[in-house]
Amino acid sequence: MKVLSVQLEKRCRSPEEFPRSRLPEVAFSGRSNVGKSSLINALLNRKGMVKVSSSPGKTRTIDFFSINDALRFVDLPGYGYAEVPKAMQEGWKFLVESYLENRRNLAAVVWILDIRRDVSDRDWMLWEWLHARSIRCIPVCTKADKFSFAQRKKGEAAVRASLGEGMNPICFSSRTGLGKDSLWREIHRALASWKTEGELASQDDTGP
To answer: For the chain, what is the HEC assignment?
Structure first.
């Protein structure tokens, strides 16, 4: 996709602040310090659109980015950082679940994993939560450039075996651009599917 314009539309600390659901949305979620911000910047060809922090757990809002005024990227707070106070973790959990539960225009969630680490319990909790609600999930393994080719293939195979049959994670590197085109293709498929499902639902609503 050719990205012509990107705008930080809104930064929300509560569900009441979420923008109107006029555009299809793709959300990005993963544990803290997994490379989420770098991934989004790489997809958008913008170096500083999403702030990259070396301090895990810094993101405390849900950020909505308008892309070409045709879709939104939604940056969700990272999860699983133990040093964040429990009360703050619970606040983020409520905020994220409120978004995921109620956004009818959500086309997919890009589920971000670190290729160098095992799939954690928190990762699985997110996957099961999305699966139970039939929310489309696109698994992506970041930081692939940290490995040699042979190591990357081994890490990719390990993650695929962990995820199970039918789940094929995309290896991604924000530094080299590896996996960028593949991820955009999956996003376009998700948007096309969401549009089709929305049209079918609309037909069902009107009835004969």
So the answer is: CCCCCEEEEEEECCHHHCCCCCCCEEEEEEECCCCHHHHHHHHHCCCCCCCCCCCCCCCCCEEEEEECCCEEEEECCCECCCCCCHHHHHHHHHHHHHHHHHCCCEEEEEEEEECCCCCCHHHHHHHHHHHHCCCCEEEEEECHHHCCHHHHHHHHHHHHHHHCCCCCCEECCCCCCCCHHHHHHHHHHHHHHHHHHHHHHHHHHHCC
